[in-house]
Amino acid sequence: MPSGMVMQAARAIAARQRICGRILGVLLLVLLVPSWVAAQPSDLVARLSTERVAITTAFTGESILVFGSTEEPLGPGGDEVIILARGPSGPFVVRRKVEVLGLWFNGPAARFEDVPVFYAVAGTRPASRLLPEEILVQRGIGLASLPLISTGARAPGFRTALRDLKQSSRLWQEDAQPIEIAGSRLFNLRLPLPSTVQPGNYRVEVMLVRARRIVATEQLGFIIERVGTAAEIERVARTQPVLYALLCIVLAALAGWLGSVIFRRN
Fold first, then answer.
1. Within this chain, do residues 91 and 181 fall inside the same structural domain, yes or no?
2. By the 8 A CB rule, do 107 and 157 touch?
3. Number of domains the chain contains
């Protein structure tokens, strides 16, 4: 075989070897990188004690434990944690009562859109001391940062009334209690759910704050649903409102009649 053909064959073999080596390197990278990433420590890990809350006729409220750990120590001079829980949103109308000749009537009203039925925020320290105002507004952290857009009456008193109504019923909570720290890297928060909490999908966002910046987040969630008799009552009220109203009237009449019989005998 001429020497020129031998050289060409050698070059072709070397080129094929280089291509095969590159393909093998890429395959090894694809196989090894995920395991290497999984082996790296995470800055933030968070979990919920439960992902489902059942509302029955005897439901008086519930609480969910949010807990987790961080890679760096928590506390003053170290990392901080903020936990934000939010329920489904919907419209909410705030009305002002007007007195006319000793009688009270519905007066001006403001309709707010996308009002969360439940909202709670807490941190190792108040969020306003951990993050700049622009980040608080951008991410809706804190009651003052909620984008409450209304139609109808424009007086600022309606927004204040909405906040007062939600906070008095414990459906909106801000720094009700701080996040507890254990062992400098473990944290937990007991998230209280009042008896008036509504069914739906709830989101919990756990944020790790370092040097006034959010450097890591964990997105969690849980479901609140009615079960048993409570679910049947809600279904009838929603699908057959006339029947539900008649049943309420009949039950109220029976209760009144039974009460009168008992007191008459006494």
1. yes
2. no
3. 3
Same domain, 8 and 131: no
Residue 19's pLDDT is what?
Answer: 54
CB-based contacts of 42: which residues, under 8 Å, 6+ apart? 71, 216
Q: Nearest-CA neighbor of 82 among 19, 142, 30? A: 142
Sign of the alpha-carbon dihedral angle for 86, 92, 97, 103: negative
Asked if pLDDT for residue 221 goes beyond 60, the answer is: yes
Contacts of 47 (CB under 8 A, 6+ apart): 66, 67, 68, 220
Across all residues in the chain, what is the average pLDDT? Answer: 82
**Confidence band of 219 (pLDDT split at 50, 70, 90):** very high
- 152 burial (CB, 10 Å; 0-12 / 13-18 / 19+) is middle
Verify that 30 and 123 share a domain, yes or no. Answer: no
Taking the C-alpha atoms of residue 44 and residue 71, their distance in angstroms, rounded to an integer, is 7
Q: What is the C-alpha separation between 227 and 54, in angstroms, rounded? A: 6
The residue type found at 26 is: V
Instruction: Domain of residue 36: give its range.
Output: 1-40
Question: CA–CA separation, 87 vs 2, rounded Å?
Answer: 81
Q: Comparing 77 with 215, which gets the higher pLDDT?
A: 215
3 shares a domain with 56? no
251 residue type, one letter: L
